[in-house]
Task: inverse folding
């Protein structure tokens, strides 16, 4: 599902109105009615509620006027408040405001602090407030009267329904640009917007519903500019195909997991088991020779391959020859590998000589922090990197705080610059492609912030790559299922007690939940 910024949303409106001939009044009417439909679904007692609709001068205010009219026509006790002067309302918004007047539902003007002192109490005593002040039109922080209204609303605790965006947020930013109204429900129009999908802004948006107002999907898909997509259940479930009854283990690929060192054998096990539970037909763990017995004892379903090692019990640089000779499907390297010069030389050798897809995580990224020039992917030999913010900061020579402030741009820019697929882990994990497309993952929870969770994700990515999925599909499916497994684990053991093993154990259930709807829809199911 495509995520639009402010300019892209305006262009979608323009194409729909000017090129397709759908009148803007129709879009505004649809928007208002969809907001009311969402309110009816969210509030069981809406018919008996007192609703205050706060409107601005622009089209978002026009949407609010339609909301007020539809609620009034359905018998709801509704009052309209125009923050500003009636004289400033123009176009379609003006037409809908005048319709309200002809129906006998006048808008109360709030143009000053004194007006708010007089009428604010009425607003704050309402059962529900509809925020139709700005929508996607805001470019600068709210100040003065509008800031006061936002502060008072937030302090009151009254449920707020935001039209398109909570006022105070910019459609172009994941961080609030200033004071903002905290919404209980946001009904966003035609397509989701950036602050609704990414932290920290998403945390003040409440439940989010995307409303169809009549802008065709084909228009949204062809809008130029940055391409950001939110992963959806419906799109991802089509990537998991039914298995051929005549298939064998070789049909589903081979994942070679290069991981582990003395004291860090668990990382290798978690990645290998995750690759198996993601459907890879064969999985081999290549690990230092002294670690083989431990890794083999942890899991009976994968194979092991001993590698030459350093005196510290980590993979030696010369072991690259063995790994490259045995690689048949995909190589995942990094979990528990170590960060000494030998491991750096080992990872460099894989990047320079491997002919199969590579997944680099954890220590395999850390050892490249001062040598990112070697990190190059090609269409023939794709490379996936799966950093957390700290690892990405080391690759860029910056701080984790800076990465967090610019997550989407950081992931997209790095993917383009190096021709790699970036899986930037964290709250709302991002997948960025070499072409500059960024996908936002909606699954996952804070309980997954536990040692080994990233190792599981490495194995999941490798497992789907081994089965022949294109890299973008393998990465997006992997992050979605990894997060979904974490959500299932949270419902089972809670976020506090969750371990990486809990996430691993729920991968199968996550796949079943993803595919269950499609199976029910099949004839005879």
Result:
């Amino acid at each position: 599902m495509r995520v639009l910024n402010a300019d892209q949303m305006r262009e979608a409106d323009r194409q729909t109105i000017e090129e397709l001939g759908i009148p803007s009044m129709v879009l505004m009417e649809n928007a208002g009615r969809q907001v009311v439909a969402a309110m009816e679904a969210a509030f069981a007692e809406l018919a008996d509620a007192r609703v205050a609709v706060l409107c601005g001068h622009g089209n978002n205010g026009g949407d609010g006027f339609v909301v007020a009219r539809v609620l009034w026509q359905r018998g709801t006790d509704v009052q309209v408040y125009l923050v500003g002067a009636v004289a400033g309302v123009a176009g379609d918004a003006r037409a809908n405001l005048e319709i309200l007047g002809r129906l006998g539902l006048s808008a109360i003007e709030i143009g000053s602090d004194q007006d708010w002192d007089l009428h604010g109490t009425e607003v704050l005593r309402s059962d529900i407030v509809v925020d139709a002040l700005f929508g996607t039109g805001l470019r600068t922080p709210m100040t003065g009267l509008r800031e006061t209204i936002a502060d008072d609303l937030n302090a009151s605790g009254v449920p707020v329904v935001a039209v398109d965006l909570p006022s105070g947020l910019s459609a172009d930013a994941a961080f609030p640009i200033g004071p903002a109204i905290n919404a209980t429900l946001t009904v966003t129009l035609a397509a989701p917007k950036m602050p609704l999908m990414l932290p920290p802004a998403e945390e003040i948006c409440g439940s989010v519903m995307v409303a169809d107002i009549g802008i065709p999907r084909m228009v949204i898909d062809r809008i130029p500019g940055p391409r950001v997509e939110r992963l959806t259940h419906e799109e991802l479930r089509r990537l998991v195909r039914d298995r051929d009854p005549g298939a064998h283990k070789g049909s589903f690929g081979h994942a070679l997991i290069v991981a582990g060192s003395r004291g860090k054998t668990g990382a290798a096990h978690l990645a290998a088991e995750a690759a198996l539970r993601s459907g890879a037909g064969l999985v081999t763990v290549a690990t230092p020779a002294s670690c083989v017995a431990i890794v083999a004892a942890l899991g009976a379903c994968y194979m092991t391959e001993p590698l030459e090692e350093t005196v510290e019990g980590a993979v030696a640089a010369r072991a690259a020859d063995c790994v490259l000779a045995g690689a048949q499907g995909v190589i995942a390297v990094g979990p528990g590998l170590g960060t000494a010069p030998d491991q750096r030389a080992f990872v460099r050798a894989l990047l320079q000589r491997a002919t199969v897809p590579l997944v680099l995580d954890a220590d395999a990224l850390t050892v490249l922090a001062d040598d990112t020039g070697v990190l190059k992917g090609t269409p023939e030999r794709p490379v996936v990197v799966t950093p957390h913010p700290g690892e990405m900061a080391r690759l860029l020579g910056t701080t984790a705080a800076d990465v967090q402030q610019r997550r989407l741009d950081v992931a997209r820019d790095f993917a383009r610059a190096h021709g790699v697929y970036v899986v930037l882990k964290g709250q709302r994990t991002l997948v960025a492609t070499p072409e500059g497309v960024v996908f936002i993952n909606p699954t996952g929870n804070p309980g997954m912030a536990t040692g080994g969770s990233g190792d599981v994700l490495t194995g999941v990515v490798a497992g789907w790559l081994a089965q022949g999925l294109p890299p973008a599909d393998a990465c997006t499916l992997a992050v979605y299922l990894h997060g979904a497994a974490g959500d299932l684990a949270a419902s089972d053991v809670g976020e506090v007690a969750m371990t990486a093993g809990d996430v691993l154990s729920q991968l199968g259930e996550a796949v079943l939940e993803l595919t269950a709807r499609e199976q029910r829809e099949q004839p005879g199911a």
Observations:
- The chain has two domains: 2-225, 250-512.
- The first helix runs from residue 6 to 19.
- Residues 51 and 63 are 15 Å apart (CA to CA).
- The two ends are 28 Å apart (CA to CA).
